[in-house]
Amino acid sequence: MKKIIVAAVAALSCLAAAPALAGDVTVTLTGVQARGGQLLAALQTRDQFLQPAGAYGDIVRNPEAGTVTVTFRDVAPGDYSLSVLHDVDSNGQMKLEDGMPGEGWAMVNGPSLRAVPTWDQVKFTVPASGDSRLTVPMIYPR
User: What is the DSSP string of the chain?
Assistant: First the structure.
């Protein structure tokens, strides 16, 4: 019996020390406009939120109009925000016009935002196992 308990404790300690599983996050961007430039897509942790850094990133150069899919590979479980900028002038920054975005952008729940977003408004959770899929519309200035 003692050997069984020792073996069970050893097995549980190995599970506790195992690294968290990682999955892919596939983002489908709808309503992309063919404006040249590049799509800058990033997953950000709470500490990176609304900063020029991201835990995971991808660039789509000269995106075509319609739907664009971006896949972030081996994303650790946890909460993230998604930030996408259609950087038409390829300067790596959001152009502002009268305090409003002057280039296309996307975030989770983007169409419902009426001011600078908060973390809780745009975060989503990557589960401990399995892949995640998001469909997010691009928003462009008129």
Answer: -HHHHHHHHHHHHHHHHSPPP-EEEEEEEEEE---SSEEEEEEE-GGGTTSS--SEEEEEESPPSEEEEEEEEEEPSEEEEEEEEEETT-SSS--EETTEESSEEE-TTGGG--SSPPHHHHEEEE-SSS-EEEEEE-B---
Per the confidence metrics, is the pTM higher than 0.90?
Answer: no
Expressed as residue numbers, the domain containing 125 is 21-137
pLDDT digits (tens, 9 = 90+) for 76-121: 999 999 999 999 999 988 998 888 899 999 999 999 998 899 999 9
CATH number at residue 77: 2.60.40
